[in-house]
Amino acid sequence: MKTLDLSDVVEYVAKHIGEFHEKRISSLDRLKLSRVLKCKNPYLFKAKNVLTADEIVRGLVDAYTSSNEETFFGEWLEKLVIFINEKVYGGKKSGITGIDLEFDDNHARYIVSIKSGPNWGNSSQVGKMVSDFKTAKIALRTSGSQINVVAVNGCCYGKCPKPDKGDYFKYCGQKFWEFISGNANLYTEIIEPLGHQAKERNEQFLQSYAQRINKFTMEFAENYCKENGAIDWEKLVKFNSSASTSKTKNQP
Questions:
Q1: Which end of the chain lies in a sparser environment, N or C, as judged by fewer CB atoms within 10 Å?
Q2: For residue range 13-49, what is the model confidence (pLDDT) as tens digits?
């Protein structure tokens, strides 16, 4: 085990955080109204008495961007975790299905499934993770090795008062960052580096966001509003749910 040099983390973040921002901007730039209209419940908008095209469009785009940002940042954090662990324990990205990180410490081989937060999946998804852990343990012991394999579900934020889950351990927030780095304070020390160029990058994102909102609002009004400006709910629901939906004039 080596002591983590925080300057290595700062340098890594400065070099790679742009990858996250570029993904969120390019994803928004590629977005089409027809895609998000098919994924959102139109009955919910009606039940909430939504009356304007702008409000519907913002609801659609905001839900899309929020979900995508969670995914993109989760993927980015996984790379950061592996980088830090490699510096301290010589860990590596695992080649075993369902396992993100492998490293050795205290005569044990740790296999880690990395998630953003503690409430990341339903019972079937957790069951799949447990199954992946069991399969990985078998794979690591096929050579007859008596290695002690310990499975860990690591969550980058949150808390888990009872980490021992029987088949695996669940470490969240401070305990997880300390587990992969040996540094009990890392969970707070990484906050400042993550803000590198955040203001500049967010201004780029807001420009793309505003353009998308304006474009989609015009497109929605043309296709799903009546001549008097009211939302044509029947037409909107048919596009979203009809078994034989026809394309509107501005949607590929």
A1: C
A2: 999 999 999 999 999 999 999 999 998 899 999 999 9
**CATH number for the domain that contains residue 8:** 1.10.3250
Q: What is the CATH number of the domain that holds 115?
A: 3.40.1560.10
96 and 181 both lie in a single domain: yes
Domain of residue 181 covers 91-194
Do both 111 and 173 map to the same domain?
A: yes
Concatenated DSSP letters of 3-57? ---HHHHHHHHHHHHHHHHHHHHHHHHH--HHHHHHHS-HHHHHHTT---HHHHH
H helix or E strand, kind and range, residue 82: helix 53-89
Contact indicator for 84, 1 with CB cutoff of 8 Å: no
Q: Supply the DSSP symbol for 135.
A: H
Domain count, the chain: 2
Look at residues 207, 187, 192, 204 and name the one whose alpha carbon lies nearest to residue 21.
204
Residues 6+ apart with CB under 8 A from 34: 239, 248, 251, 252
Tell whether pTM > 0.70: yes
